[in-house]
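User: Hi! I'm working on a homework problem where we have to compare a predicted structure to a textbook description. Could you give me the structure for the chain below?
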Amino acid sequence: MDKALTAEQKLGTAPIGKLLIHYSVPCVVSMVVNALYNMVDQIFVGQGVGYLGNGATSVIFPITVVAIALALWIGDGSAAYFNLKLGEGKENEARRCVGTAISFGIVVSIAVTVILVATLKQLVRLFGCTDTIYPYAMEYGVIIAAGTVFNMIGIVLISLIRADGSPRYAMIAQLTGCVMNFVLDPLFIFVFHWGCAGAAWATIIGQIATFLIAVFYIPKFKCVKLSRNDYRVDMSMCRKFMPLGISSFITQIAVVIVCAVTNNLLSLYGAASKFGSDIALAVFGIVMKVQQLLISAVAGIAAGAQPIIGYNFGAGQHGRVKEALRLVNISATVLAVAAFIAFQLFPVQIISIFGSEGALYNEFAEMSFRIFLMAVMLDGFTIAAAIFQQAIGHPGKSAAITLCRQIVFLIPAELLLSSIFGLVGVLAAGAVGDVLAFIFAFIIIRHESKLLAKNEAAVIASQPA
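Assistant: Happy to help. Predicted structure tokens:
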């Protein structure tokens, strides 16, 4: 247990900046790699199949996000509870949390896989699939749905591995899968000529590799040692850690809701424009995935800080919590501003990575990046604020920030502005939603910062002179 004690002591005593680099850099790589799975498929499908293939991956994307959302709900919730209990010195409860999360994750993953395979035909229509894109979507989606079980269990384990103080191992597991996907995509598409099915097989094989590496870590947990009894699904334990993962779930499931609403609006108003429905769907799917890359990177910074924040909050070291929040906000904002500059200056160059199409295609891509992502520089603070609330055990506030960013402000704005400005209105709603969500998150974090400062002052005052 010496290693476990050392890991815990570092969370409570090492410089925050050094800890943030140690935990967040591998976490950023891991989460970006996870986001790259679908993006890599879209790049090679765009080059080898064309924009109809890209439209297919765009339709399947929200379906895969449903599975990811459920896995993160379990994984991030149990990871947050695990770190809070370690900070409080309750090792037995931390151990039971890990065992229950693994077993519960397996059960849920199998159930979700069966449901997705059985209902795929209905789901693709729900997410705005046109008749032209439908055969490509089914070819790609059946394979992706069947392999969901490996992806979900891997995600749960990766969250727990990171919380156990092994962010580099988590990074290697996910990086291995992404590299395999990147290598197999061109082989299956351009050499074997498997089209969309080839891209799907490449993705699933990569996810299986990540799953296997993550499974091998289970006997190596550093902060706790699991026994056979710990793997019993304890629903009372699930009720304790699941609320802490609600923000991660909402963050992802909101993408699904947004995709469903937006894709249908794009189909409706795109058909009445010079661009047409297929171009609008294909392009916006790429824009959403590029934005998801930014969201994953920012979430990686904040999620990497979660063990630091959770442990120190549980241990009552509010000054260290406040410093971690400050550094996370600075890092996330710098990253979001850099992304904003790239989206505004190089939209055509970015879209060309996913295949070269006609002038109308490029024109709509330029509009989408510049209008929909006009206020994306504010997203860094907003996303970090939601994950911070999750880390300190405030799932309600975390969920409220996430809901406002993705649903409460964005969807009404899309419905209202599209009725007035058509296709441009759908895109403009993105900036409106980002601004309003930032204001809401800022108010909550400002209040939380004052509470942390007050608690820190109380601790200092209580210490003997």
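For your comparison, note the following. Confidence is low (pLDDT under 50) at residues 1-5. The two ends are 35 Å apart (CA to CA). Good luck with the assignment!
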